[in-house]
Design goal:
Helices cover 32% and strands 23% of the residues. Bound molecules: N-(aminocarbonyl)-beta-alanine and zinc ion (3 copies). One zinc ion binds next to loops. GO terms for molecular function: dihydropyrimidinase activity.
Length: 467
């Protein structure tokens, strides 16, 4: 039995903030005691004490949207499960939910097995899987039931990327009907990919090939239209819906209207939409390619609607959609044709810090920070209260965070295996100091002490926002 105490910090959860000492035993949190009642925690016999005075004590981050080693556009996302989960730990994230992919014409099981093989023995922190449905048919619909039973309880479909991951409305409706009966949650990439492909073809024919055109053809209206359509299809199926990587104000409005009707509709946004904009896609010398992702970055005016959505619960979750491609050799595949730039951006290491900066800047409260980054994603994807909070019985996934430290984000100092930072030079107030994953110190005052293979696969319950 190993016992650790974290003493004197401000424990922040989605529900409350209290100065408390935290007792950890065999990988779990077993007790909290108010710091001003030292008689309670003074009797704890521990092997190790972590001094958190002047620091925050936070639940480890839950990043519910990552793509380690994802195949896309003839290449693979640059972070492996090993490098990507190590970078996540550096950034205070202790659980990722990555996307296993069903290949067209293949079984869900084959895709899931392949993703287990990539992750097993390689992760520094705990991990779980969603399943991407690329081929909805009788047998894959049946397999959805089996996956829900074994802890893969959410399924992503794409209204974008015709010929690759795309599902038509009939396939979406069928999968939603299945989710309505088996308790699964459909996660939607909501962009009208058929219309977008027409605009892509027209743009290229006109000689418009720069990265910025990626943002011009993937119009906000086509995100809003797809979001609206996904919501209506979910209503017809009687299924809940989670819309991923929401970027446009008009799409937030669709989610808000559905939620005001009382529908079980949820939304996620990502740091890139909160902190970056089409100004970045517009950078000269093909630098804009670093900022190509889908949904695309939007004009800066959209950010206010995203922040408001996060404050008012029109949006519930901030995940990264971490899908890094190096500028050299990968993003460069799209020189002369923006449609060949691999879609995706790095960020798994930066999410907790960027959102803390949002607390400093007054966009969200400290507790809302922990809600959108830890508790809500854990609840949404059936991991709560094992993950996402600090409470007796929870896994001891804990971050000691120094709110007064200052840092500058940079590719020179980050740990993601990608040759640029989307936030190069950005000053951040606050920094992760120490991280525990199931009671093991994996980052010790900014020295990495974790190891590949410490992280375990976590089977999930169904969405905990539903009755
Ligand atoms: O550009 C992105 N988001 N790449 C990853 C795949 C996806 O659509 O989430
Ligand atoms: Zn997507
Ligand atoms: Zn994604
Ligand atoms: Zn590289």
């Amino acid at each position: 039995m190993t016992r650790t105490a974290i003493r004197g910090g401000l424990v922040v959860t989605a529900a409350e903030e209290t100065y408390a000492d935290v007792l950890i035993e065999d990988g779990r949190i077993v007790a909290l005691a108010a710091s001003d009642a030292p008689s309670a925690s003074g009797s704890w016999a521990v092997e190790r004490t972590i001094d958190a005075r002047g620091k925050y004590v936070l639940p480890g981050g839950v990043d519910a949207h990552t793509h380690m080693e994802m195949p896309f556009g003839g290449t693979y996302a640059a972070d492996t499960f090993e490098t990507g989960t190590r970078a996540a730990a550096w950034g205070g994230t202790t659980t990722i939910v990555d996307f296993a992919i069903q290949s067209r014409g293949k079984a869900l099981r084959e895709g899931l097995d392949a993703w287990h093989a990539k992750a097993e023995g390689n992760c520094a922190i705990d991990y779980a899987f969603h399943m991407i449905l690329s081929d909805v048919n009788e047998s894959s619909l049946k397999e959805m039931d089996l996956l829900v039973d074994e802890g893969v309880t959410s399924f992503k479909q794409f209204m974008a990327y015709p010929g690759v991951f795309y599902s038509d409305d009939g396939q979406i409706l069928r999968a939603m009907q299945r989710a309505a009966s088996n308790g699964g949650l459909i996660m939607m990439h909501a962009e009208n990919g058929i219309a977008i492909d027409v605009l892509v073809e027209q743009a290229l024919a006109e000689g418009r090939t720069d990265p910025r055109v990626h943002g011009e053809v993937r119009k906000t209206l086509l995100e809003a239209e797809a979001t609206h359509r996904a919501i209506q299809l979910a209503r017809v199926a009687g299924a809940p819906l989670y819309v991923v990587h929401v970027s446009a104000e008009e799409a937030v409005a669709e989610l808000a209207a559905a939620r005001h009707k009382g529908l079980p509709v949820f939304g996620e946004t990502c740091p890139q939409y909160l902190f970056l904009s089409t100004d970045d896609l517009d950078r000269p010398d093909f630098e804009g390619a670093k900022y190509v992702c889908s949904t695309p970055l939007r004009p800066r005016e959209h950010q206010a609607a995203l922040w408001k959505g996060l404050r008012t619960d029109e949006l519930q979750v901030v995940s990264t959609d971490h899908c890094p491609f190096c500028f050299t050799g990968q993003k460069e595949l799209g020189r002369g044709d923006f449609s060949k730039i691999p879609n995706g951006m790095p960020g798994v290491e930066n999410r907790m810090d960027l959102l803390h900066q949002a607390v400093v800047d007054g966009h969200i409260s400290r507790r809302r920070w922990i809600d959108i980054a830890c508790a809500a994603p854990a609840r949404m994807f059936g991991l709560y209260p094992k993950k996402g909070t600090i409470a007796p019985g929870a896994d001891a996934d804990v971050v000691v965070y120094d709110p007064a430290a200052e840092q500058t984000l940079s590719a020179e100092t980050h740990h993601m295996d990608v040759d640029y930072s989307a936030y190069e030079g950005r000053r951040i107030r606050g920094r992760v100091e120490t991280v525990l994953s199931r009671g093991e110190v994996v980052l010790d005052q900014r020295e990495f002490t974790g190891r590949a293979g410490h992280g375990s696969y976590v089977p999930r319950a169904t969405c905990q926002y539903l009755g």
